[in-house]
Amino acid sequence: MADEDSKPVRGPVEHPELRLTPDAVAALANAASLPLSAERVAVLLPILRIWLADSAALNRLMQAPAHREVLPITVLRHRASDADLR
User: Fold this and answer.
1) 19: buried, middle or exposed (CB in 10 Å: 19+, 13-18, 0-12)?
2) What are the phi and psi torsion angles at 26 (to 5°)?
3) DSSP-assigned letter for residue 9
4) What range defines the domain where residue 16 resides?
5) What stretches of the chain show up as alpha helix (H) in DSSP?
6) In angstroms, rounded to a whole number, what is the distance separating the alpha carbons of residues 7 and 77?
7) pLDDT for 35-81, tens place per residue?
């Protein structure tokens, strides 16, 4: 498992925060009141590494001048009654 943890994320990495460790995943899960066993962290870690690397790649792509005017296809609208939800 130690070898797996030291592998870089897929794709070019420009941000060191994309290098997730088992401790970082466990800490984030605990902060969200979702404690995970070491086995579950081990399953989740490679998935999160891929998601974050691909998300960063998509972010870089969408910041390119050719895509600056692209808007989301889904528009979230808040109704007045939503303000009363807690």
Assistant:
1) middle
2) -65, -40
3) P
4) 2-84
5) 2-6, 22-31, 38-62
6) 41
7) 999 999 999 999 998 998 888 888 888 888 888 788 778 777 777 66
Q: Residue 44 carries which side chain, given as an amino acid letter?
A: L
pTM attached to this predicted model: 0.56
Q: Give the number of other CB atoms < 10 A from CB of residue 40.
A: 14
Question: How far is 47 from 6, CA to CA, in rounded Å?
Answer: 15
How far apart are alpha carbons 54 and 23 in whole angstroms?
Answer: 21
Amino acid at 74: T
Token pair belonging to 63: 């910041």
Which tokens sit at 24? 């970082």
**What is the SS3 assignment for 32?**
coil
Q: Are 41 and 29 in contact (CB under 8 A)?
A: yes
Count the domains in the chain.
1
How is residue 58 written in tokens? 């998509």
